[in-house]
Design goal:
four-stranded antiparallel beta sheet, six-stranded antiparallel beta sheet, 394 residues, alpha+beta
Length: 394
């Protein structure tokens, strides 16, 4: 005789299904209320439609070779440079994606076209500021570091001076600790002119210090990029955050100082003065090859003279004033310290690099040396192609 067959109670199944549905809605609600989620799913460009921008590299030198004139652009005929390398296009795409992601735009489509143009597709309706941010050109600058701190806002409450960290002589360490900024003169007592690009008393005004204290490098609007500081003034900015880092990860990085914020001095060397950059294993004094990954940087004639003067001035300064910030698209990609004068324009940047991070910095430096800007060729509204095709097919 066959054993009786047990039938699963439909009530139990329905209860489990109900619990699962409630759990899903709870997760969605949590994301919508406490994070950047929404109740309405974000659709891609082919389902929602949106705006398509086409950008091309425009040479800074009117006499540049390897160019093509694109006729009837939104702003008339545009001369585009056609010999741009794939690595340079990829770096430009990475910068645009950083801007788009930090602006809260999901499902953006960014690709190269024709080997030298960039096509950016943004789903939905976009504010003019977002479109302008996407098409804005990126630049690289070398600025001296005046002050650095973990990338979180400084505490607003008054701290007991006795609780601040001290050095071996019992004196407060000042700018090496968060919330313990170096003393700055009030604006009326500010020097008439700076003694150098590293003059803290001149460049770190009360207004600059207030901006620095309030800066929160975990907020997307502060690492969207695209910001351009005045070349002869102090500039307050953040480190470039790691790709795809969550809000919690950014908080941890900022709290530990792995994601920093800076007060930088005026521009002393431009990215266009770089001749070339590359990465590889370090070369030892005896000619052998070491085990550390480094980035090798070479300047052109003007850059060599400028960087020689910078390295000579920064070398004897205390930390962090012996460092210089390499700024790409308004964010710091590296802030190495100077440990020797560099009169020949050949610098080696070392640190906690692996093969990938060293190659990335070299690629960023090479992009910074690129004598081009990207200009918008066209801006068009496009329809929801996939959605409309499905509706037509029924």
């Amino acid at each position: 005789m066959a054993p009786p067959v047990r039938r699963q109670s439909p009530v139990r199944t329905l209860i489990l299904l109900g619990v699962a549905i409630v759990a899903v809605f709870g997760i969605v609600a949590f994301g919508a209320v406490w994070h950047d989620g929404t109740w309405r799913p974000k659709l891609a460009l082919d389902l929602e439609g949106g705006t398509e921008l086409i950008l091309c590299p425009v040479p800074l030198d009117d006499g540049a070779e390897h160019t093509e004139v694109i006729e009837d652009g939104d702003e008339g005929d545009v001369k585009c440079r056609t010999d741009i390398k794939s690595d340079e296009i990829n770096q430009a795409i990475a910068i645009i994606r950083q801007r788009v992601d930090a602006s809260g735009v999901a499902e953006a489509e960014i690709s190269s076209q024709g080997g030298y143009m960039i096509v950016v597709g943004l789903p939905g309706e976009r504010k003019p500021e977002t479109l302008e941010l996407v098409s804005r050109s990126a630049s690289m600058e070398f600025r001296p570091v005046l002050q650095v701190a973990p990338g979180l806002p400084a505490p607003t409450s008054q701290e007991d001076p006795g609780d601040e960290p001290t050095d071996d002589d019992g004196e407060q360490t000042g700018d090496e600790a968060p919330g313990t900024e170096p003393e700055t003169t009030d604006d009326p007592a500010r020097p008439d002119k700076p003694s150098s690009a590293s003059d803290v008393a001149y460049y770190v005004t009360a207004e600059v210090l207030k901006e620095f204290d309030a800066l929160d490098c975990t907020k997307p609007e502060n690492f969207a990029g695209g910001r351009v500081g005045k070349p002869d003034e102090a500039f307050v900015t953040c480190d470039t955050p790691p790709k795809h880092a969550s809000a919690a990860e950014l908080e941890t990085l900022a709290a530990t100082g792995a994601l920093s914020k800076y007060i930088l001095g005026p521009v002393e060397v431009k990215g266009s003065q770089i001749s070339k950059a590359g990465s590889g294993l370090e070369t030892l004094p005896g000619g052998g090859v070491g085990t550390r990954w480094v980035v090798n940087l070479e300047f052109g004639r003007d850059g060599t003279r400028a960087f020689a003067a910078v390295s000579k001035r920064l070398l004897p300064l205390p930390s962090p004033q012996n460092r210089f910030g390499i700024v790409l698209d308004g964010l710091v990609v590296s802030a190495p310290s100077i440990n020797a004068e560099i009169p020949d324009g050949r610098a080696e940047i070392s640190g906690s690099f692996d093969r990938s991070s060293a190659a990335m910095l070299a690629q960023q430096l090479n992009f910074g040396s690129l004598p081009v800007n990207f200009k918008k060729l066209s801006e068009d509204q496009i329809s929801a192609t996939l959605g409309s095709e499905q509706l037509q097919k029924g």
